[in-house]
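haha ok so turns out i had the wrong file open the whole time. this is the CORRECT one, sorry everyone. sequence first:
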Amino acid sequence: MILDLFAGPGGWSHALTVLGARDIGLEWDEWACRTRAAAGQLTVRTDVALYPTWPWVGRTRGLIASPPCQAWSMAGKRLGLVDQPLVHQAVADLAAGRDTRAQLLAACRDERSLLAAEPMRYLHALNCAGEPEWAAMEEVPDVLPLWKQYAAILRRWGFSVWTGILNAADYGVPQTRRRAILLASRVHTAQPPAPTHAQVAEPETLFGPGRARWVSMAETLGWGATDRPVPTVCAGGGPGGGPEPFPSGSRRTLSDARDRGTWTPRADSEIVLNSRREGSGWTERHGTRENRPADGQAPAFTTEAHRWSWSLRSNNQANATVRPLSEPAGTLFFGHRANECTWVAEPRSEPPQDAETPAVPEPIRITAREAGILQTFPADYPWAGNKGQQFSQIGNAVPPLLAAHLLAPHLRMSLNPDDFTLAA
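then structure:
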């Protein structure tokens, strides 16, 4: 079987499902376990650091591990970097069959730091039985030195190993998410999958198949495509994807013909939302629905809508990544209030001097559905829990499309990216 440590809501698992395989996930978080159950994935709810290794010995073909990244991520305090020497010591001890985790844990500034050493405990136990055949591990870029330590140990055990940083956007994920990857195999040369996309499209040549342009958020979400339903918008006038409450007002589907908004592609491939905005003086200028003439048509504000360009802001911090819809998103990470991803509007140009200055639409928080799609989960993926619990799962997950590129060679399978149905 394939053992998935820190399985989360199922990024690796969904990739395996698309490839025609399955794993057994070990996961502690209640809501991630509920999401996995709803998605039909096999799960043992347990603390990976406490679960015994003997049940897996003699029966494990592949090992997957994505230890929690909170201790190392730029979204947190990064105490994992302070604890890094202790984690390296734990890996070295576990590889030699010595369990010094209790002593080392007592010295850690962040108790989660030592979780990055847990895969070695399982690898050591499995190696005694000549297992696993292969391993794949993923973490934030700052963990790469630790993966290099793993690689040196695994090579002594007879594995071919590759470690490095990969950008998810190079594999069709609409997100420039950079991650430290370890790939190991006993049966073939470990190497990273060939990138399928690039920031600038590369034509096919005699030396290679070429690469498509990075996939944009608009393309993935289906915004602007003529064969997809009109997206939903917020009462504040912006992109959206579900009936969820937001500080700027509740989202609503544009089913009323009088209020219908449309996404129209520009020649430069940017996506523009044309929609009516109430509030900010709208009532004073045009009246309410109650006092508007029965045969009066609600103004569409087409002269104002073209002034706004929508982008995704990765968080509330001053150095947040802001990307237009025509590009991939920055890295999506959640976990506390400062890490909210929001759709933000910017004026395209200054209005004419004789025109009334329109109110700038308020930022709109991304929905779990939208965030999941940008992580390459299906639009109907069954996220469990409240919004905070869902966002936490999504931000911590491995993008399934990236995971599939990493796993396909180990499974001796070819990957068809068209099998990843996202927006619907």
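The chain has two domains: 2-200+399-419, 217-284+299-327+333-374.
again sry for the mixup
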